[in-house]
Write a structure and sequence with these properties.
single chain; about 140 residues; mainly alpha; two-stranded antiparallel ribbon; 6 helices
Length: about 140
């Protein structure tokens, strides 16, 4: 507020939205933890020392897997060699009811060998290649 060009009083304000209740660390409710331990048949740990004490008997044991892993590796190697070396097309039965793709039909067509070139054709082709190479050097 101003009177005669001077500030007499000022007012400022704001609004704050607090965090949700689950983030409020100031509130402790031990009753919830006690009910939870009863329902889950657990136990409350009163101190940090009790939390870090472990039972004497080990709950886990170790087993040597070397023999099993070596057998699996050997079996995988043998299957890989069999897959590469054996002719599976002869061993497996053919299914005639499967539709054949154009690529399969083209693979079964007899291939025609290209006509053998004569010495004159080879000479002419080599001369054309030489001329093309010379023309590229000029550019």
């Amino acid at each position: 507020m101003q009177e005669d060009g001077q500030t007499v009083a000022s007012l400022s304000g704001g609004a704050v939205i607090p965090y949700a209740r689950e983030y409020d660390l100031r509130v402790t409710d031990d009753g919830v933890l006690e009910r939870l331990t009863e329902e889950t048949h657990g136990q409350m740990v009163p101190t940090a020392d009790a939390l870090l004490s472990f039972p004497e008997a080990a709950a886990q044991t170790r087993h040597d897997l070397t023999a099993w892993l070596m057998m699996a590796a050997l079996l995988t190697l043998l299957l890989d060699i069999a897959q590469r070396r054996l002719s599976w097309e002869k061993a497996l039965p053919k299914h005639s009811d499967e539709p054949k793709s154009p690529r399969t039909r083209a693979a079964k067509r007899p291939r025609v060998k290209p006509k053998a070139k004569t010495e004159a054709d080879r000479t002419q082709t080599s001369q054309q290649l030489w001329e093309n190479m010379q023309n590229r050097k000029r550019l």
